[in-house]
Amino acid sequence: MHVSRRGDRLRAVIGVVGELLITAGVVVGLFAAYTLFWTGVETQNVQNELEDDFAALSSGDVTGNDERSNGSDADQAEAQEEPVAEPFPGDAFARLRIPRLGESWSWIVVSGIDLGSLTKGPGHYPDSADPGVVGNFAVAGHRATYGEPFAYIDQLQRGDEILVEHQGKEYRYVVTESFITVPSNTGVLLPTPGQPGVAPTQAVITLTTCHPRWGSTERLIVHGTLTGATRVRGDS
Amino acid sequence: MYAWIWNHLPGPPAARATISLALLAAAVLLLFLVVFPWAVTWLPGQDVSVEAP
């Protein structure tokens, strides 16, 4: 009697432990699904919204500004000359296309490189230059999870195109080098990459992401230089 | 544990099954909306920018 009751209790305890272990296994499985799959779905949804924002931005319909000017020529000229302020973190900033990674490879770059912004897409280092201007236009992006925009930028070769659309123009950069470096190598973000104190003479682009793909012990860097620009929309 | 929960749910088996599914859905939602977004920031590979140490 006594023995069998103790056996029952033991059986119950083992049962609960077993159920907890199974539950933990299911939770870990769900977490894997969340990381590998669901973050990508969420990022794609946000990208679709950003695509609309970017289209509005490009057509001069600045988000958050409900005042429609009736468009005297002077007004428009003034509006175009005014430097557009850096958008808020997470706002659409530019469109990035890299034909080497597929004709459909197209991402809206958001402003900012904080964790929240980077879940939406590649992020523009706020202190780096704008696309097309002399200096360093720097973009960070996830290499795994969150749609993994920069998953395969290790495949870029010298001479590959990086196309950046910003404020009605498409800037054509050409890859000059790519390398792996330490996470603290902020020299790659300098106006003249790797050369502190040297005034920039050309427009360059810098892409940064983690390396190895699922790790963060190093960073993968891709540099390119501007070779041309075309107007993508005739309307203002 | 799950047997204990089942035994403490009210109503006939059909109602218990419905409540069980609702509880399961709530648990999964909590994981996806709160726990996982927090946990994922602890994974390696989330640091994609270069910054001064």
Q: Low-confidence parts of chain A lasting 5 or more residues at pLDDT below 50? A: 63-82
The helix count of chain B comes to 2
> What characteristic shape of chain B results from the CA principal axes?
rod-shaped
If you average the pLDDT of chain A, what whole number results?
87
Number of strands of chain B: 0
Give the largest chain-chain interface (CB within 8 Å): A-B, 40 and 21 residues
CATH class of chain A: Mainly Beta
Q: What is the CATH homology-level superfamily of chain A?
A: Sortase
SSE string of chain B: HH
The biggest beta sheet of chain B is recorded as: none
Structural class of the helices, strands and pairings of chain A?
alpha+beta
Order of helical and strand elements of chain A: HHEEHEEEEEE
DSSP strand (E) fraction of chain A? 25-35%
Integer tally of domains of chain A: 1
Helical content band of chain B = 55-70%
Taking all Cα atoms into account, the compactness measure Rg of chain A is: 24 Å
**Radius of gyration from the alpha-carbon trace of chain B, in angstroms:** 19 Å
**CATH topology assignment of chain A:** Sortase, Chain: A
- How many β-strand stretches of chain A? 8
3D shape of chain A? elongated
Q: Main sheet of chain A? A: 8 strands, mixed, barrel
